[in-house]
Design goal:
166 residues; 9 helices; mainly alpha
Length: 166
């Protein structure tokens, strides 16, 4: 849910008009719109490059994943890993566009632990994969845009880390 929606719903729940502070937060959100769109476009246009770089780094760090018996051994399994990379990158763009982590939570993280456990994919390995994806994605962005994007990757990593400890 975007900042705008959150502020409006909160005011409506309380049966009141928006406060000047809430209006300022909406104004601030709207002023960053151009940057958020630029980030989403850059990540979408660079998806192949980002996924390729992140996967190469992951296989370098964790060659056991692509070795016989590893979760990414074989063309089909490796293709599924790359598909997940694209999916998580897309989730980050949703969060960036909304200016909020809620789309990441509601679309992507609910049920992650159950899904990966059912597929016998170690969540710890996915955390390492997301770290590689984060590094590759931030590498295609300007310093300012990377700084604005980083918290969304960190949120995914944090949530996966918590779910792997449960």
């Amino acid at each position: 849910m975007s900042v705008v929606s959150q502020v409006i719903l909160k005011a409506d729940d309380e049966l009141r008009y928006l406060t000047s502070g809430e209006l300022k937060s909406i104004d601030s959100f709207l002023q960053t719109g151009e940057q958020r769109i630029r980030i989403a476009e850059e990540l979408a246009q660079s998806e192949s490059k980002i996924v390729d770089k992140a996967s190469k780094e992951l296989w370098k760090r964790r060659p056991d994943f692509i070795a016989p018996g590893g979760n990414a051994f074989g063309q089909r399994e490796r293709a599924l890993c790359l598909r997940d990379y694209g999916w998580y990158l897309r989730l980050v763009t949703y969060g960036v566009l909304a200016g909020d982590k809620d789309p990441i939570e509601s679309i992507g993280l609910i049920g992650v632990r159950e899904m990966y456990n059912a597929l016998e994919v170690p969540v710890v390995g996915m955390i390492e994969a997301i770290k590689c994806l984060k590094d590759a994605a931030l590498g295609v962005l300007s310093t300012e845009d990377a700084k604005a994007t980083e918290p969304y990757f960190d949120y995914i990593i944090q949530e996966m880390t918590q779910s792997s400890c449960q």
